[in-house]
Amino acid sequence: MEFGIFSVSDVTRDPVTGDTPSEAERIDAITRIALAAEEAGLDVFAVGEHHNPPFFSSSPTTLLAYIAGQTRTLKLSTATTLITTNDPVRIAEEYAMLQHLAKGRMDLMLGRGNTAPVYPWFGKDIRTALTLALENYNLLHRLWREDVVDYSGTFRTPLRGFTSTPRPLDDVPPFVWHGSIRTPEIAEQAAFYGDGFFSNHIFAPSEHSLRLIDFYRQRFEHYGHGPAKRAIVGLGGQAFIAKRSQDAVDGFRPYFDEAPVYGHGPRMEDFMQQTPLSVGSPQEVIDKTLTFREIFGDYQRQMFLIDHAGLPLATVLEQIELLGEHVVPVLRRELAARRDPDVPETAPTHAQLVAAKYGDDAPRQPRPRANRGDNVTGGSPYLDTSAAPATA
Amino acid sequence: MNATDKSLVVVSAGTSDPSSTALLASRAAARIESLGAERGLAVATRTVELRTLARDVADAMVTGLVSPSLQRALDAVRDADALVVSTPVYKAGPSGLLTSFFQVLDNDVLIGTPVVLAATAGSARHALVVDEQLRGLFAYLRAVAAPTALFAAPEDWGGGLDERIDRAAAELLALVAGGFRDAVRGDAWGRYQHSYGSGGGTQLGIELDTDLMRLAAGGA
Q1: B116 FRET partner, CA 20 to 30 A, in A202, B84, B87, B198?
Q2: Which residue pairs from A311-317 have beta carbons closer than 8 angstroms and sit at least 24 positions apart in sequence?
Q3: Chains A, B: CB contacts under 8 A, how many?
Q4: CB-CB under 8 Å, A130 with B65
Q5: Do B216 and A211 make contact, defined as CB atoms within 8 angstroms?
Q6: Rounded CA separation A31/A64 (Å)
Q7: Global pTM?
């Protein structure tokens, strides 16, 4: 089981102090948060992607590459990467580059984005978002697996003899999660490709996520990737921890009450009772998190939303420490004891994917041929493959 | 309740206790029960007082979180064989509490459900609010509203109202006894536009034979 934290990169006024951090302060803070996650023994740090204020994360690969350079074990991921408004060619290029720099310590999660005004800024239309997401991913999947791609689709310029560079690290594509709350087509696509499926699992009772996760598991098996129980499932969630339960409740309440995602609505206690939110002592957070496994079965990744709603850096760092010291070690032990031995412990790591593809052989290391302006007139652009034009 | 018994749910947005809005609804429900009994149809009535759910409805509107008590009310409406919906008229329109409740309700759960629409107001000048505003909401939900709507201004409580209630009750019972909702859902359910999760858990399986599903599976 992997445990991690994620940020949606909001810059929000702290309701207790009244201060709104600057973008610069939040960007500095987020790198410290990621480094603290590794120090605390957590497995994953993920960041969202937004192209409108009050969010700062428009360039997740830049941020994650910097963090990769400062860390040794932490896996970098996204929550989510926009598969709609981004050109899949750019996603293929940028995340392959990140994969090289992070030495395979990364994966990514794809999502649609639901802010309608953002779409036209990138020449897109939210009414076609689902088709865009599906079609773009079909292309992205090929770009990471085929040296030379010919493509024509509904949304982007056709490709003739296009090679996405750099090729993925060891010619093994990054692992991909598909995030969705209520879209069967996304679960279907994750299942078709044998990719991971992630449920946000924050705003609604756990049972609301169950139907789509079960559908994904069943379709994963249908497409021959293995039994349903071996499908790769990730869950979001939020915890706020203090040694004493009441301190957690008092400490989090002002942030809950004004949080852009929860606030001005239900009482925090109602939200805690009815949704995956846990606010309390380490033991309370442990107990609640263990119920997720009872609902969804053994799963591979648990992410906690860590820094939103104006929570100050010091508090976030304290939360990471508490997670790493008092919560995650117990959860690791308890979940390992309960886990079906046939179910993968984590999403596939780069090393596992390399081993699966090459066995004991050395991984492919593509070396380009010299002096190629384009791939339109030739065959393969790499030395280890035939230079003859491919016959269609 | 026997298998042949029918459940009637009254949804009232009246705010006082007792309220004339709830009173109008309960008179309609009582008449539906008695007329049903005359025709060998046992009708059991349950009432949802939206007044007691106002905060929950507001929370659901702004955060999407549905409280357990609101969920019970939504489930009761989903499972009802027929509804009586009754609202006060404010500012020439139905109560926002009532429309909010039905805006929180999943899109597909009222397909084919027979409904008697009712409203009360302080003046007869509001008489067309039911037919001109409330009927449109239930048309959107693809419920089937009885042709006779009920409306009661203060002067209506004297006479004439019972006759309209009789008519509405007869219309509703005809729709219920004729099995309109079951016929629609059994044969034609797939021909309505549905979205995932919109049927309150009552919808059929996920449709695999669509262009989008084929695109999801590699586009072949």
Answers
A1: B198
A2: A311/A14, A311/A255, A312/A14, A312/A17, A313/A29, A313/A32, A313/A33, A315/A251, A316/A29, A316/A33, A317/A32, A317/A33, A317/A36
A3: 62
A4: no
A5: no
A6: 9
A7: 0.91
